[in-house]
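Structure in, sequence out. Go:
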């Protein structure tokens, strides 16, 4: 070890003297120093030792103090004290450290390094000496320690490089040669610049050298090149090594190859970026929430759009805080499933948006670790539209079933109504009928009309009724209905009409429009048993354009609006969603069929419109019906709705009519009606029977009345085609109680679709329809052949 010389004026001596003058500090240092400290007089008597020095001698402090120093220091070493004292007394320099051997209590010797310091009186007179004592490691131990240190460096898994201040390599470990591919002989004495990859500029290395030459440690990443030319990334920590005088003698660099880690970090960053892109842009609503308290940690744009909140309003708050749960039972069901299974797949839930709207979702939840926090990753698929479509499909299936039932019922029911209606009207024509009997006949006729109307409602509701739209003005329809409406609602209800002038035309079936108004008026009447006010109004409004996929908030269109308001009892909010259901009614048993509003909505939807309800208990009820405006081409106008006129009596005839009807009572009724009007008849109960009659009497037959739906293998349409093949200009009147008979007729272009009479019919309607068909056929034949036609008698 290099032992320098210190004078009395050195900083070390000045600090020592200052410390000795401070009694408190001196005592603290003396007692607690790990180094041995000893103080002796000029005569060489030990004045004091600390515990560390006493332990070094193997004796208690009391056994050392007061004894001559020569008793503990080897005599051949202690004789230097006289020389040192003389130098100090003459204020000359002397070695600050000497090596003396101490004799321990067990007789062994230990070499120690004494760092000496003179002790003077306040007047500056030398009065003794003091020293800090450090035991020296034996040379053999130093060699062993050096070997151990080298072995430790060689076994490190990370490369280690030691260079001198010139940058020449003086040591590398095995990990360095394995990492770089260079041997020890190839690198010793060389500058590490042979590892330079060219990836770093001069300023990088300038900062590198400025740091370590300033005695500081440099830490950073550097890209190097191996012997085979491949690149690798290292984390390096370069530390300067100082000698006893504080001068930098070497640099030691500990390196760690982070190429794999950097690659993994890059892959992880790319994976995170991909996840973020998928997370953000996914059309499904996705979010992450904490498992501990359910607070939102992140949500994507689709979730924000679905729920109507901003990201700032959601992050940091839970679904419970935001009142998103519509049903707390569903929340408990979700929590239970997560506790039991650890994840959830396609659980159907309902959530409440910021606006209060309810959305149906299928939620899937998986555990996710975000940093140190356990979270849930959830995906919500909005199935609100799908649920609505499913409801529509169920409704359509229900309507289809009801329609099929309605069609079958209508066929049989209309046959019965035809008989009832025909016989009551024929009975009413008898003169001298007693008043009480005539009143009963009138009641039967009205009951028949109500039953017929119920059949029409059933068909309209199931959309099996023939739809015949035309350009019409809604105000004209209402004007024609005013008288009938006043009769329906009664005298204790005031009817107010507010029709907007110059109302645009709509494309509608007049009969169906009348059905809408009639049904709503009847409902209003029943809601005001003590009287009240019924208001019917029309106007033009702008509303969001509606299509099969729902309302388009971005596009708007003009609509004709029909408003029907009453001052009745109102409808509770919880029943609003059910009032349009078929067969649902709040009326007393026997007072309603439950088809009125269902029929109204069905008709409105057939007209590409929609209906809205506003009602509260005690506040009356309002229905708002929207019809698309018809864009009428220039120069054309909507059809004027004709005022209802009294049906004229049918003219009599003398032709022979083939009546083909499978229902015996209806066949007999039709025959009786025609005979009453002067016609001769031949009857058949099926198509084959009719062909047999035709084969025998075709020259006598002038016209045919055919039921469209008949058993026996030949329908009315097939029979008509056979007869037309035999006589092309044969007048034929079709009739049926079935729902789609007219549609079947329209599918046969060779037959006159206008020659159709729907059951139930009155005697006068049958006679008028038949007369019209015969006269039209005669006129056509006369125009084409100029042949004489049968005359009609009135």
């Amino acid at each position: 070890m290099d032992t320098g010389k210190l004078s009395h004026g050195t900083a070390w001596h000045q600090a020592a003297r200052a410390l000795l003058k401070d009694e408190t500090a001196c005592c603290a240092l003396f007692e607690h120093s790990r180094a041995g400290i000893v103080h002796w007089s000029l005569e060489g008597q030990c004045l004091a030792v600390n515990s560390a020095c006493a332990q070094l001698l193997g004796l208690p402090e009391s056994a050392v103090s007061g004894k001559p120093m020569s008793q503990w220091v080897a005599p051949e070493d202690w004789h230097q004290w006289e020389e040192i004292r003389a130098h100090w007394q003459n204020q000359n320099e002397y070695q600050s450290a000497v090596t003396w051997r101490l004799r321990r209590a067990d007789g062994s010797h230990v070499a120690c390094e004494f760092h000496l310091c003179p002790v003077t009186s306040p007047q500056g007179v030398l009065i003794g000496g003091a020293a800090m004592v450090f035991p020296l490691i034996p040379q053999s131990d130093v060699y062993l320690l050096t070997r151990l240190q080298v072995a430790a460096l060689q076994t490190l898994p990370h490369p280690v490089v030691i260079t001198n201040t010139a940058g020449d390599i003086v040591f590398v470990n095995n990990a360095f040669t394995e990492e770089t591919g260079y041997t020890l002989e190839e690198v010793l004495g060389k500058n590490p610049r042979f590892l330079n990859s060219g990836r770093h500029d001069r300023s990088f290395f300038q900062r590198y050298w400025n740091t370590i030459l300033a005695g500081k440690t440099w830490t950073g990443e550097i890209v190097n090149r191996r012997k085979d030319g491949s690149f690798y990334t290292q984390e390096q920590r370069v530390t300067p090594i100082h000698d006893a005088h504080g001068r930098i003698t070497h640099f030691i660099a500990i390196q760690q190859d982070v190429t794999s880690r950097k690659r993994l970090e890059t892959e992880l960053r790319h994976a995170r970026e991909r996840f973020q892109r998928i997370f953000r842009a996914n059309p499904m609503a996705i979010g992450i929430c904490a498992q501990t308290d359910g607070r939102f940690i992140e949500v994507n744009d689709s979730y924000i759009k679905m729920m109507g909140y901003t990201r700032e309003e959601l992050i940091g708050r839970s679904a419970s805080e935001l009142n998103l749960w519509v049903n707390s039972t569903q929340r408990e069901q979700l929590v239970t499933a997560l506790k039991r299974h650890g994840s959830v797949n396609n659980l159907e839930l309902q959530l409440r948006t910021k606006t209060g709207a309810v959305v149906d979702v299928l939620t899937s939840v998986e555990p996710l670790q975000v940093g140190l926090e356990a979270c849930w990753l959830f995906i919500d698929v909005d199935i609100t539209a799908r649920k609505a479509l499913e409801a529509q499909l169920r409704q359509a299936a229900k309507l289809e079933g009801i329609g099929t039932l309605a069609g079958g019922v209508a066929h049989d029911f209309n046959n019965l109504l035809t008989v009832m209606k025909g016989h009551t009207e024929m009975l009413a024509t008898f003169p001298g009928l007693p008043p009480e009997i005539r009143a009963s006949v009138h009641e039967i006729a009205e009951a028949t009309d109500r039953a017929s109307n119920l059949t029409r409602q059933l068909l309209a509701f199931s959309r099996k009724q023939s739809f015949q739209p035309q350009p019409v003005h809604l105000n004209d329809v209402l004007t024609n209905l005013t008288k009938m409406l006043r009769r329906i609602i009664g005298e204790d209800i005031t009817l107010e009409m507010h029709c907007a002038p110059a109302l645009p035309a709509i494309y509608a079936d007049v009969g169906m429009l009348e059905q809408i108004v009639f049904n709503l008026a009847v409902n209003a009447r029943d809601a005001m048993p003590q009287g009240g006010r019924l208001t019917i109004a029309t106007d033009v409004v702008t509303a969001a354009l509606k299509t099969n996929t729902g309302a388009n908030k971005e596009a708007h269109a003009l609509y004709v609006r029909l408003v029907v308001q009453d001052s009745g009892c109102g409808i509770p909010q919880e029943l609003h969603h059910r009032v349009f259901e078929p067969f649902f009614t709040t009326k007393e048993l026997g007072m309603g069929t439950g088809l009125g509003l269902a029929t109204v909505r069905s008709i409105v939807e057939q007209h590409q419109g929609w209906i809205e309800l506003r009602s509260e208990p005690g506040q009356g009820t309002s229905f708002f019906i929207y019809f698309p405006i018809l864009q009428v081409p220039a120069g054309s106008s909507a059809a004027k709705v004709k005022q209802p006129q009294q049906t004229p009596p049918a003219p009599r005839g003398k032709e022979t009519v083939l009546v083909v009807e499978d229902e015996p009572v209806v066949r007999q009724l039709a025959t009786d009606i025609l005979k009453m009007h002067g016609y001769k008849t031949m009857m058949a109960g099926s198509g084959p029977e009719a062909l047999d009659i035709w084969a025998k009497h075709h020259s006598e037959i002038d016209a045919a009345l055919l039921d469209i739906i008949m058993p026996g293998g030949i329908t009315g349409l097939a029979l008509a085609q056979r007869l037309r093949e035999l006589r092309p200009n044969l007048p034929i009147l079709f009739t049926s109680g079935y729902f789609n008979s007219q549609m079947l007729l329209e599918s046969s272009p060779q037959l006159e679709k206008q020659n159709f009479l729907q059951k139930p019919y009155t005697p006068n309607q049958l006679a008028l329809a038949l007369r019209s068909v015969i006269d039209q056929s005669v006129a056509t034949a006369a125009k084409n052949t100029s042949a004489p036609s049968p005359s009609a008698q009135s």
